Amino acid sequence: MNKADLHVVYWTEDGKAQARPCFDLTEVLRVSEELRKLRRTGYPITLIASKSEYAESVGQDGVDVTGPDYDWKKRRP
Question: Any idea where the domains of the chain sit in the sequence?
Answer without folding.
Answer: 6-53
